[in-house]
Design a protein that fits this description.
Ureohydrolase_dom_sf; alpha/beta; eight-stranded parallel β-sheet; binds zinc ion
Length: about 425
């Protein structure tokens, strides 16, 4: 049997969009520095010794805490999952004065965090995969770029292994900070990991769909293992099904995975009948939405599916796979979310976390390939967390929208409500 590392192939030129889109039923619609993670109770250790580390007081004053891991070495020319994505968001946040340097105590950047350890990542992925990826770095160093076939083409460069550990670590450090802040504040900051490579397609045995390690899944296990918070509710609003997260927790009754995605989009999984297995039956909810679904659809889904589901589950923390590729301007899919949709989602999820789990909530960047709509939507999510007015009207152009297929949307929602007794 071939070892995992042997499956890596030399890079050859590839039509990524075509492969990512080349799935069942697809139809293009018309018109269109190191951080100390050790915590005891509510205080973060080491903060008195290092001025760069956060005191719990500073944490409690903040409304948003974010971390940045741009993975600048993990890049392939013309690939949509590019190293320009995170810098585009960061520069939009700066331009709109929504970053740490402009907002003092309200918004803080966690810039000292350590990479995830092999054990962290191996809580979700097989050790064989993790070791195989590390080994494959020698091959990538020699050849510049390698990729694995049949994975919705996922590439690797010489720095992919290390940068993927940094991305996962950036998420874990945020979880630690938010959990610590919630011990002493009723209104802890929302965490936002501005990281890549993304994670929700990566399966336990390997990479997939531009994703290397399942950042949100690794964080969910960390929450349980390190903080003793048992029940984790994961909301995945990326336009694609988060199959990796789905698979990691398919039989786990303590981790609820709820994914909305475009029906028929990559990778073709996430049918409404996929509800979990064994003890985990009922704690996976997949809601495929018809192409063209937009703001009305998602607001209805939030009220009629996400809220009752989360209320019934009673989570200790909410983690979010925040993909911005359901935006109407995104090149990889055909939903019609707008900047305003993402503002509402951010505001509503923050409120849900406040109502159900002491405000513990961390967002993880997943997809989003139009740099402008991606960065504007993340910026408006920040405004929602701050309780500031949305600027969606400045960014959204109603002329590019067409009528949502609301009859089909209602059918999809009714079906999932019946299956899950909502
Ligand atoms: Zn996606």
């Amino acid at each position: 049997m071939l070892s995992w590392a042997c499956k890596w192939r030399n890079f050859k030129r590839h039509n990524f969009a075509a492969e990512f889109l080349g799935c069942r039923h697809f139809e293009k619609l018309p018109k269109s520095k190191r951080y100390c993670r050790e915590t005891i109770g509510s205080s973060i250790l080491c903060s008195q010794n290092d001025p760069n580390l956060l005191s719990s007081l500073k944490l409690n004053d903040a409304r948003i805490i974010y971390s940045v891991a741009a993975a600048m070495g993990h890049n392939q020319e013309s690939h949509p999952e590019s190293h320009l994505r995170v810098p585009a968001i960061v520069s939009a946040l700066d331009r709109m004065e929504l970053s740490a340097k402009f907002r003092g105590t309200e918004i803080i950047e966690l810039d000292h965090f350590k990479p995830a350890s092999v054990d962290d990542v191996a809580s979700v992925h097989s050790k064989n995969y993790v070791a195989g990826l590390q080994k494959a770095m020698d091959q990538a160093s020699q050849q510049g770029l390698i990729y694995i076939e049949r994975t919705g083409p996922t590439y690797a460069t010489a720095s992919t292994y290390q940068e993927s550990l940094v991305a996962a670590g950036a998420g874990l450090a945020l979880v630690d900070s938010v959990v610590a802040a919630a011990e002493s504040s009723h209104n802890p900051p929302v965490g936002f990991a501005l990281i890549r490579p993304p994670g929700h397609h990566a399966i336990p045995k390997g990479p997939m769909g531009f994703c290397v390690f399942g950042n949100v899944a690794v964080a969910a296990r960390h929450v349980q293992r390190v903080h003793g918070l048992k029940r984790v509710f994961i909301i995945d609003f990326d336009v694609h099904h988060g199959n990796g997260t789905n698979d990691a927790f398919y039989d786990d009754p303590d981790i609820f995975f709820l994914s909305t995605h475009q029906d028929g989009s990559y990778p073709g999984t996430g049918r409404v009948v996929e509800v979990g297995h064994g003890d985990g039956e009922g704690t996976t909810l997949n809601l495929p939405l018809p192409g063209g679904s937009g703001d009305i659809a998602m607001r209805t889904v939030f009220d009629e599916v996400i809220v009752p589901c989360a209320q019934r589950f009673k989570p200790d923390i909410i983690l979010v796979s925040a993909g911005y590729d359901a935006h109407v301007l995104d090149p990889l899919a055909s939903l019609q979310f707008t900047t305003g949709t993402y503002y509402s989602l951010a505001a509503n999820i923050k409120q849900l976390a406040k109502d159900l789990c002491k405000g513990r909530c961390v967002f993880f960047l997943e997809g989003g390939y139009n740099l402008e709509s991606l960065s504007h939507s993340v910026a408006d999510s920040f405004r929602a967390f701050l309780g500031e007015t949305s600027l969606a009207r400045e960014f959204d152009n109603p002329a590019v929208l067409y009528e949502e297929p609301l009859t089909k949307v209602k059918q999809a929602i009714d079906k999932v409500k019946t299956i899950h007794s909502l």
